[in-house]
Amino acid sequence: MPAQISGSEDAQARVRQQFIQRWKAWQQFWSTPLGEALQSAQRRSLSPTLGAVFGHHLLYLGASDHSALIDGGDIDHRMGWSPIWQPDLPDATVVAEPEWLPLPDESLDLVVMHHWLELQMSPHLALREAARLTMPRGQLVIMGMNPLSLWGAQSWWGRHRGGNPRYQGPRLSFRRLQDWLSFLDMRVERLEWVFHRPPVQMPRLLSATQGFDYALDRLRCPFAASYMIWARKRVGSPIYNGRRLRQWVTSTGLVQPMPQGRHAVNRTESSSKSAHVGTMPSPVRDSDISY
């Protein structure tokens, strides 16, 4: 029995290490010329619709600086996410494992998943967790890498060469996500294809091919680097459940002590303006599921 427990702990540690490696690789990517160009294009596509969303609570899930992507709009409370605690984390950052986000059910008006599923060992569980947090008639935005593109081919090649951890994550097509969202009672309302430039770290070439974005956006070309899916939760009580999150934040000063176990969190000073929540053990990947 002790040997079995030790083996399980080792497996969880390996899964956790792989996840952190992917997260850090994506963090580095967003600071490169290519990453900045992609995020700029995604921000242009996201901003008009984001400005039309009214609500109180937004959660950003991804590896980049969330303020650079979700700035704008009329949503009052914006939260970011990190899998590990760091001293320089922005205010209102949730620190937790992706499958166990310590926030109330149906409490968020909008959840933005910025290449978040590509970090996961079990993306279907991470998507289910994001759907759990979305309130009835709330919206979920998923940005991911399009496997049917030059970027997808580059990812496939990098995955088989065993190089950059960024290429080791799951490659999820729009059709696969549409099936998962339907199972989670989410209705896809909008699909956009974003960024039609080649995956090269050459600023001059990226600038020279900028016109591809404007031309192919109008044609809705399905071979872009990234897709952006807007989905809305279509079931549940019509009562606005955002008050659960407000009560939770108000009563604890943005910090909520949680029970021991998989929902355990760390207590921080109540005077802090951050919503730092402690990490929890990562579940072992379901090896029977292929992505």
TrEMBL record:
Pfam family, one: Methyltransf_11
Record Gene3D superfamilies: Vaccinia Virus protein VP39 (3.40.50.150)
GO MF term set: S-adenosylmethionine-dependent methyltransferase activity
InterPro entries according to UniProt: Methyltransf_11, SAM-dependent_MTases_sf
Residue segments, region Disordered: 259-291
Positions of the Methyltransferase type domain: 92-142
UniProt signal peptide: none
Domain of life: Bacteria
SUPFAM superfamilies given in the database record: S-adenosyl-L-methionine-dependent methyltransferases
Coiled-coil zones: none
This protein's name: Methyltransferase type 11 domain-containing protein
Organism, as annotated: Terasakiispira papahanaumokuakeensis
